[in-house]
Amino acid sequence: MTETDVAIVGAGPVGLFAVFECGMLKMRCHVFDALDMPGGQCTALYPEKPIYDVPGYPKIEALALVERLAEQAAPFHPVYHLGAPVTGLARVDGGFRLTTAAGISVAARAVIVAAGVGAFGPNRPPLPGIEAYEGKSVFYLVKRREDFRGKRVVIAGGGDSAVDWAISLSEVAERVMVVHRRAKFRAAPESAARLEALAKSGSIELVIPYQLHGFEGEDGKVRRVVVADLDGKTRAIETDCLLPFFGLSMNLGAIAEWGLNLDRNHITVEPATCATSASGIFAIGDIATYPAKLKLILSGFAEAAQAAHAIYPLVHPGEALHFEYSTTKGVPGRS
Ligand SMILES: Cc1cc2nc3c(=O)[nH]c(=O)nc-3n(C[C@H](O)[C@H](O)[C@H](O)COP(=O)(O)OP(=O)(O)OC[C@H]3O[C@@H](n4cnc5c(N)ncnc54)[C@H](O)[C@@H]3O)c2cc1C
Fewest CB atoms within 10 Å of the CB: 200, 205, 213, 282? Predict the structure, then answer.
């Protein structure tokens, strides 16, 4: 069985930065992710969106941030297991054994759970047969805005994602229609106001109060979306694609079976160390909770540093840890 110092469950931005922090303390890492690419929510949900609150970057696109984090982790030669959900976590002599659905088995002295919202997936609208259209003309996220250039787009939902993408896609799409069951949108007030202004100017059509009722199409291509008002009266809208934005389903999956103290689908941790209720297992990033927790990438970065320092004595027992700045220590291969 492969052995490592620290096994990190989740290759989101926070898991990636944990590789760097562990590396700086001479701890090797194996990183697992259920998705087949690193970056977690940043890559899977909003790769082209600019982030404005990562220290040192006044503005950085989510995918670019992930690339920088992977570059920062690279000198420490992490071993990535992508497309590999961790299903099993067992305590063994000297640490833990992690196993994946595909049968990969890695032994580690300590475990960092950086699993975000768990194995996440979209909340699907209850439209029979929609699976056959997913990834062809039904999308739960926008990977590339350009893919929608010149298209007729129906967006369903009333939250931030629906509103933000309606505004953004109105710049490239031939037509954007937003289906929502209420007149009021649950988005940031400035975004909701911008949406309404675009609707007034005719750049976006608001289909309210309606909800998705069905669709027509063939060979993976949606032709028409059928919507129903609150009295059940239906209307068909011609379209090239349907983007339902009904939020994420949060599914901790196997993590819920690992005997960790949970609070509403989050792992409770000791804030100073990010230690969970099980010794040797730490949790950081969106999945970790403690009083006044902020679910921000920057909070997750700090938690990665705290967890790495707390793990050091488990990996290097008896060796004193002298706190040092990166400017003093340097990074292997970096001048
Ligand atoms: C549209 C949008 C905009 C946002 N904008 C900002 C912003 O401006 N600033 C900001 O700070 N934050 C923002 N966020 C939040 C930010 O993306 C999250 O705080 C951040 O992604 C959390 O990082 P993480 O590494 O903890 O978890 P995630 O990014 O969720 O990554 C966790 C990873 O763990 C994997 N995983 C889960 N379970 C398992 C398992 N059992 N085995 C293997 N892998 C597993 C998942 O596949 C996932 O890749 C935004 C979020 C969204 C959706």
Answer: 200
In the numeric block, which tokens belong to residue 137? 């003309």
Sheet strands side by side (includes 175-179): 204-207, 175-179, 152-156, 241-244
Cut 0.70: pTM above it:
yes
CA distance 140 to 248: 9
Q: What is the pLDDT of residues 67-122, one digit of tens each?
A: 999 999 999 999 999 989 999 999 999 899 999 988 999 999 999 999 998 877 78
Does the Cβ of 122 fall within 6 Å of ligand 1?
no
Asked if residue 9 has its Cβ within 6 Å of ligand 1, the reply is yes
